[in-house]
Amino acid sequence: MPVIIKGHLIDHHRPTVCVPVTKTTELEILMEIRRLCSLDVEMIEWRADFYEHLLDEEQLKRILLEIKSIVGKHILLVTVRTKSQGGQVELAENEYAGLLRTIAISHSADLLDVELMSLKDPRRSIERLHEHGCVIIASHHDFNKTPEKTVMFSVLQDMVEADADLVKLAVMPKSMEDVLLLLQSTLDFHRQYPNVPAVTMSMDQLGLLSRLTGQIFGSCITFGSMGQISAPGQIDAKELKEALCFIDKYYH
Length: 252
Known about the structure:
Blueprint: E1 3-5, E2 8-10, E3 16-21, H1 26-38, E4 43-47, H2 57-71, E5 75-79, H3 93-106, E6 111-115, H4 122-130, E7 136-142, H5 149-161, E8 166-171, H6 176-192, E9 198-202, H7 208-217, E10 221-225, E11 235-236, H8 237-251
Parallel strand pairs: 3-4, 3-10, 4-5, 5-6, 6-7, 7-8, 8-9, 10-11
Antiparallel strand pairs: 1-2
């Protein structure tokens, strides 16, 4: 099924540029989100794991409502990235699931990131989050290596079987061959599941090609920075958007 959020089609033909917010205090977070909205960023990712009061449920609810009132037409992706997946917080499964539920019931997130490997029964967890109207992007990150092509495809397939609306995979390359493996896995997945939006990237500077040309292989969102990076290899969002428009103009 196509994923349309606030009238915006999430589709590989014209990838959406997403800019992360990794500030720690409420004031800094809200100021940064206002700034990005004024720059007409298409999608904003709030990395809630950086928030200093993440584990205070009342403060989390309050800031979510504040953010919701600011973003307006802009798409908001909310992510709690755990330490095992390259994030800032170490959480037990029940703590992680509880945070996802708090975010879901706030109805503030247009997209909610769910780490596939951080839940014992991701399908059941996603089913519960769907009950609150959440659009789910299942994710997995490997900061150490690029797995075999069949392994990467299998991870993406597991996300589909968990009933995620979008699937995301980020891996670390050691060579250009690794970058090509990621792109080939993305293409294989897109051909088998053309109606499931995929978000894939090969990280670090070596993986830059995947951030620029992912649309050719079936990736529909790419992450760029506007002063802050949330993962190795992110480049300036404005330059990224220009590059994507150039490719779109001549590739299609």
